[in-house]
């Protein structure tokens, strides 16, 4: 008889909307593989409300992360707190031997990422390899439509990628920025580049691979905040493809879009906060309009798995079971974070930035604003 696996023991840190609305349903969808045992929140009222919501799980509540880690020794920690807390909480969980799945951004700078990578390495050494690892929630990579598109692009079934567009044009009003940690470098890490467009930009990199050069602009056009409320960029990829990127919280007609024009077809994803198969479209080049033998397998797969936290959690649990680095961690997580740092550096310095140029000693390694006098909150003004 097959041996029945004991479910992983999981804890959530933060019990706000993203945890109640996305992580809790994802955990319940995979209840045969993972069991929620604990929740952490500094707000007793919010914690009590979450425990009532998760009454079927029998969750134990804690006011602090360290207390929970010592008492529960969970296998998995899911982090859904404000961004400024992510790095410290991920490090603590890793050093306690727990795998980490953290809401975006994983951390606020490349320097913070280095600390997380160091905690991974120390914990991996203590266990003899095979984890624990920290991964960031990039649920748009998941779902059958994204998996299908990536495979077509990877195998060059659509021809060589040539031109791309990545668009996150959303709308956020003044009330949105009344939440104290939003729009500030030290608590959010940036504006729509860091907090909103990061999902589509990560998916673009997931589909097209390594980038080599970026030229960008950013501005505060409406909101009275420290960070930007709009950014744009031109990007060159390692295989020669070129892309435009737009991130905005000033756009009443909200949309999230990725379009990639290849030699033989255009693939396009249009959605807002999540996608299913019907949100993807494929348009053959004129010379292939009648070639059904070539284009028939471009159609979306029969099974329709929408992008979601549950879809990503399935792959994460697979990695945990195998003791392998999960998708969206390590070099993949670093590539996206480096891309954001390079976008900010290019926008604030007015110069192109190459992949790999931002390292220790570069001000944009330590903070996305790079200490620029027009953007850093406490930087001295130029004389």
UniProtKB/TrEMBL annotation:
Q: Which residues form the GFO/IDH/MocA-like oxidoreductase domain?
A: 148-267
GO terms assigned for molecular function: nucleotide binding
Q: Gene3D superfamilies, from UniProt? A: Dihydrodipicolinate Reductase, domain 2, NAD(P)-binding Rossmann-like Domain
Coiled coil residues, start to end: none
> What sections of the protein cross the membrane?
none
**InterPro entries for this protein:** Gfo/Idh/MocA-like_OxRdtase_N, Gfo/Idh/MocA_Oxidoreductase, GFO_IDH_MocA-like_dom, NAD(P)-bd_dom_sf
* Domain Gfo/Idh/MocA-like oxidoreductase N-terminal: start-end pairs: 8-122
* The protein, known as: Gfo/Idh/MocA family oxidoreductase
